[in-house]
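User: Please look over both lines:
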Amino acid sequence: MLKNDYLLVQMLLLVLFGANLWVMVPFWSALFWGAVLAFASWPLMRLLTYWLGGRESLAAGILTLCWMLLVALPLVWLVFNLADHVHDVVNLIKDIQVSGLPAAPTWLVLIPFVGERLVAMWDSIDQHGATLIISMKPYLGRVGNWLLARSAQVGGGILELTLSLVFVFFFYRDGPRLAMFVHRLLERLIGERADYYIELVAGTVQRVVNGVIGTAAAQAVLAFIGFLIAGVSGALVLGIVTFLLSLIPMGPPLVWVPATVWLVWNGEYTNAVFLGLWGTFIISGVDNLLKPYLISRGGNLPLVIVLLGVFGGLIAFGFIGLFIGPTLLAVAYSLLTDWSITHVEELLEDKTI
């Protein structure tokens, strides 16, 4: 009878645990980002708490307010600037309908084998610009629907970001108690190896954060240099926007590609070619080299494990997989390593006996 009661209690606990997970599913992503943000900036939290005489809630509130200002102000600025650029694009399309394209650049005809054909194509588009735009109208509706769907995703991302900034306050305030709870839970599950795996996960997440932020900073500096050389106005502001957009996959091209188009439209073809090549091979190319290196640096994981974790996580889970992928592979690799070492030790003991 006692055994049946114990089994019933276990089933009820599993049902309760599943119900709790079901309740938390809508907030899972925001909770994860809040935890990553709090973990990455935890040294600042400890320092600020020390300066404020141990008042954790006040320190958590100040840091959360700083994050809101740091994230919200650039987002508001970006939204207003995007609205202005949309207006400029509409005016550009109207100008093309009325006056057509500008004259083909002189260097276009100098391209070997295809130069004359490209100029002829340019002139053809210029002569039939209005007709071309009319023929594209059915497709513009599809593009509009696609942009509307992407706008909905961006809106959902902003809401998720707002929730994560709310959750980060509680992670700051209750961080030590949450860490103690996780430590006790892992000790109950895996025993004395709990400390090792906590350090493994923490170190992996920290290296991923350093890799993402370090790569974003490098791309922002390189973009700023490229904009200065190409003579793009507002190079510093565009560099800051590049840093913000570097935190998401394929973000930097959203900055340097419109800047390249702007240079072409203003007839600065040499600078446009330079910025296009600089953006393709330098700004965007550094992401594929620097980020895996920074993530693998300081850890005992093989670089191939890190690469599989980064790119596989991105494909499987989206941007959040940038953190989940390497962490999962790091834990799995360590578990298999521990198991293989333990198995070899057991075989050696059997041979000795």
